[in-house]
Design goal:
10% helix, 345 residues, DUF306 domain-containing protein, five-stranded antiparallel beta sheet, mainly beta
Amino acid sequence: MNFKDELRTQLLRASHELRSEDHPARRPAAGPRSLRPRLLVAAGALVLAGSAAAAVATLEREPSRELAGVAPGFGSSLREYRVELRPNLSAGTIGWCGNIRIKGIGGGSGCGLAAPASAPVISSGGLIRGKDAEGTSLNYAVVTATVSAIRLSDGRRIVTARDTRLPSGWRAAVWTERQRVGRPPAIPIPLDAAGQNIADERAQHGTASGRRLAIKQVSPTRPPTGGPCAITVPRITGRYAGSEQVITRLPSRQPDVAGRPFLACATTVFYDRDARYRAALLLDARNPATRADRLPGQRPTKAPGIAAAFGDLTLRKAGPGWLVIEGRSERGRLRVLRQLRARTP
C-alpha cells in the first residue's frame, strides 16, 4: 500500500468512526489485572478528529512533553503542571503511584501494584477538565526502555523520553488531548523501535505474585520487637499516634517485578499539632537486605542527611532502606522525620 492509499484508508476509517459514535468502542472494565492509576476527575473517551489534517497527523510522531512544564487548553492561558511517580506507601505493598498537578485547577493521584518484569508499562493515567461533552486532559505513561513510543486511539504516536529523575532505564510520555467527558479513556498502546505493538499482559495481582504481603496492626508508640521491621512514633505532647501496619514476614522468594521497586515494610499514620502525617519504611523489593534504589526525583536538601523526592516526600536513610514521610509542609515533615525511629531487617 502506497502513501496515498494509506492516507485514504485513514480518512475512511476516521469517517466511519465518527458516524458510529452512537455505538462507541468501550474500554474493558478495569479488573485485578489492571495497574493503571485512575487519576481522571471525570472519565472520558478519546475522540478521533474527522479531517484530512488530523488523518495526516496519525502518520507522524510527536515528542513527549516534559514531566513538568506548561500546557495549553486549561482555561484562557497556559497552565503549569507536574507529573510525578512515587512509591506506593501502603504497608505490605510493592507498587507505584502517579500524581498529576495542574496549577490553579487541582490534581489527582492513583496507586497500583508493581508491574511484572515482562510488562512494558509501569504506570499511566490522566487528569481531565471539562464541564461539557468534551474536555482537555493531561495524560502520562511511565514505561520501560523497550517502549519507543505509544500509540493513542486517534492514531497519534507520542515518542517516549528519558528523564534522569525516573528509575534507571525507564522512560515517560506526557501529552494533552481532547476527550469525551463521562467515558473511560482508551488505553495507549506501547510500541517498540520498529513501531510494532508490545504485548502488555499482566500477571494476576495478589500474595501469590509477591506484590502484596500479609500485614498486621501494631502500636505505633510501642511496636513489637519481633518481626521484620517497625516504625516507632515517640510520645510527645500534642501528638496523637493513630495506627501502624507492618508485614508479618519478608518475601520467601524474589517477586516478579519490573525494575527495582520498593516494599513498604511498615506504615504508620499519626497527627502532630493538628497536621496529619504518614511515614513508611521502604526496602528493596527484590532483596530487602540490599541497599534500596533512589526514589524518583530524589534530591538533597539543605538539611544534612535529608532528601526530598517526587510526591512531596521527605526521607532519610534507615538501614538498607529509606524512612519516608508525607504531610502538610516540608518544615513539619523535616521536624517529625528526625524524631521517628525505624527498625530494619
